[in-house]
Amino acid sequence: MILEEFVADAEQGRSVLVTGGNRGIGLAIARAFVENGDRVAITYRSGEVPEGLLGVKADVTSEAQVDAAFTAVEGAHGPVEVLVANAGMTRDTLLLRMTESDFTDVIDTNLTGAFRVIKRASKGMIRLRKGRVVLISSVTGLYGAPGQINYSASKAGLIGIARSLTRELGSRGITANVVAPGFINTDMTAELPEDTRKNYLATIPARRFAEPTEVANVVRWIASDDAAYISGAVIPVDGGLGMGH
Ligand code: NDP
């Protein structure tokens, strides 16, 4: 199908792509867009593609794999109108033990990975003259965390991307926003030592961790028409942990 036919076919829902949408927060986000009636694709590296989603295999550290994934999604659903850059990793350790590859691997996935997918998505969004880019950052991007110099730097960098993108492409009907979750119950936080979990629970005003759907609902909203005039914003979903963003 050519671009114009996809545009005419808009009642079928928007073409949405969520990176790392096979589990955790990404999967909850993908399901929220499905509930919305959108046509949803996810990238995955391992495991199975969850039911009801179009899965395209891609490692965000590979420009070629990202390009191939977009080509597949465009073929099936049309140009990506909503991009959620969610894929991310941690490799926590204190500064003196952190190797250069601990630092650069996390940056390559979380920050440069987001750059790769946003750059690829922007071509279609510019032609469509509309688009929503949502970057999944973290409370630690602005708040900091011991053992997360690599991760915090990567997540803070996403804010710079969203704000520069807003200034570059804001006049083309494209918004770029950051959602900054606090502690969410996923495989990523399941790895935390019990002591660390207890310490964080004590400092979170809401006194609980959140479920992935609580992030997903905010992402769905920031990508909706209701949020058309919000761009370059950092939206915390952290139970009050990082107030002051
Ligand atoms: P999970 O560890 O549960 O899932 C991570 C996802 O990212 C998986 O789908 C994984 O794919 C994918 N991924 C990791 N590296 C790559 C890569 N190189 N290329 C492609 N995909 C990759 O994490 P969460 O769901 O908890 O986190 C999702 C996002 O939210 C991340 O960006 C994370 O930093 C952020 N976040 C999470 C918080 C939390 O409390 N959980 C708090 C704040 C932010 P695969 O299954 O193949 O490994």
UniProtKB/TrEMBL annotation:
User: From what organism does this protein derive?
Assistant: Arthrobacter flavus
* Pfam families per UniProt: adh_short_C2
- Single GO term (MF): 3-oxoacyl-[acyl-carrier-protein] reductase (NADPH) activity
- InterPro entries given for it? KR_dom, NAD(P)-bd_dom_sf, SDR, SDR_fam
Q: Which UniProt keywords apply?
A: Oxidoreductase
Look up the EC number in the record and give it. Answer: 1.1.1.100
Q: Which NCBIfam families match?
A: PRK12826.1-2
Where's the Ketoreductase domain?
14-187
Q: What's the protein here called?
A: 3-oxoacyl-ACP reductase FabG
Spell out the SUPFAM superfamilies in the cross-references: NAD(P)-binding Rossmann-fold domains
Q: What is the lineage of its organism?
A: Bacteria, Bacillati, Actinomycetota, Actinomycetes, Micrococcales
Query: Which leading EC class covers this enzyme?
Result: oxidoreductase
Identify its protein family.
Belongs to the short-chain dehydrogenases/reductases (SDR) family.
